[in-house]
Design a protein that fits this description.
The chain is mainly alpha-helical. The chain contains 2 helices and no strands. The chain has a domain of 68 residues. InterPro entries: FliE.
Length: 105
């Protein structure tokens, strides 16, 4: 009995969004990046959150009335949580690499 969720069997709300012209089962070279693509995307998101938090901090310091302190603090916390998660992933990857390198062949 196969209970794995594939793009054809998972609920519509969880199905990945494909660019126009790509079928659900179609394998492409550029779109099928796997773990490396997901990691690159996550790092880009963390970087964008940090840049946004820095921009909002600068705007608050310049006393821009359109930027609230609450919004800035939330952005800073989001950036900090994203950075901490990225750091944990990096540490796990380094530990896994070390474990593999220390294996007896």
């Amino acid at each position: 009995m196969n209970l794995r969720l594939t793009p054809n069997t998972m609920p519509v709300s969880l199905q990945p969004r494909l660019p126009a012209g790509h079928a659900a089962g179609e394998v492409t070279g550029a779109g099928n990046e796997g773990f490396a693509g997901a990691l690159k995307s996550a790092l880009g998101s963390v970087s964008a959150a940090q840049n946004d938090a820095s921009r909002l901090q600068r705007e608050v310091q310049l006393e821009n009335p359109k930027v609230s302190l609450e919004e800035t603090m939330v952005a800073i916390q989001k950036a900090q949580i994203g950075f901490q998660a990225t750091l944990h992933v990096r540490n796990r990857m380094v530990q896994a690499y070390t474990d593999i390198m220390n294996m007896q062949v």
